[in-house]
Amino acid sequence: MTLTRAGDPTGDPGLFGPGSVTWQAHGDPMMWIAGIRALYLQALHPRAVRGVMQNSDFRRDAWGRLMRTAGFVGTTTYGTTEDAERAGARVRRIHRMLGATDPDTGERYGVDEPALLLWVHCAEIGSYLHVLRRSGFPLTDAHADRYLAEHRHSARLVGLDPATVPADRAALAAYFARVRPELAAGDDALEVDDFLRRPPVHPLLVPARALLWHRVAQLAYDSLPPYAHELYGRPAPDPATVTRRLRATGTVLRTIPARLRWQLPPKHILRAMARLGPAARPAPYKLGP
């Protein structure tokens, strides 16, 4: 991947660039549902979710956390190389300062343990890929493998050795199979689940929560793998029904003009197009073979 000089915003394609699968895929509106799915999945690793719960008031700042994650993804996808490197350095600096304590053993550990960073990365990137493909975004198997390989870049930014990160579908599936025995729905995971199902809102917004948010969160939850439903203790929905709902939702959201969707702050895509020109506009038809 050819990059211009870091720090020079003019014509700098950033870490991925307009020719990447990531560039086209991350402009899709189903990324929001994929992000919620990632939270559900990440919470099933007791050591990883403990690091979140012991270092933040999740219930008070869950929206902020979700928006910071979205901002990081937007910056690393569409920002300049310097922007992406700066965002990664900030994440690594914060992680170095934080630790968590196992309440059963008293063990103190850092939240930047490679195994924990790898789980968070794989649950996130795997969720993006799963929801996009299942909702009808036109990613072939070859595209999916390219996408995973590209995200060794984002893994490096958070402190992982890219050589240890799954770079294709087979490696990602093997990773999830390997880590599966470590997963459990403990108290922390159930608290995340409860928040995502019933986030606190102003009383006037309760009807909207029931009408809109509940459907979004439920769809994200339903798209989880069967073992996640088993751990959370609720019956797994019919896979074909979930796929139909994902495709229907994707179809509706994709009818919203992209320019309108991209007007929402912080406008990463519009800034990238202003920097690189209109040809940098992300679109599924640009994926190529």
From TrEMBL:
InterPro entries, sorted: MPAB/Lcp_cat_dom
E.C. number: 1.-.-.-
GO molecular function: oxidoreductase activity
Domain ER-bound oxygenase mpaB/mpaB'/Rubber oxygenase catalytic, first and last residues per copy: 23-254
Enzymatic class: oxidoreductase
Pfam family, one: MPAB_Lcp_cat
Keyword annotations: Oxidoreductase
Record-linked PANTHER family: BLR2777 PROTEIN, ER-BOUND OXYGENASE MPAB_MPAB'_RUBBER OXYGENASE CATALYTIC DOMAIN-CONTAINING PROTEIN
Protein name as it appears in the record: Oxygenase MpaB family protein
Species annotation: Streptomyces rochei
Taxonomic lineage from the root: Bacteria, Bacillati, Actinomycetota, Actinomycetes, Kitasatosporales
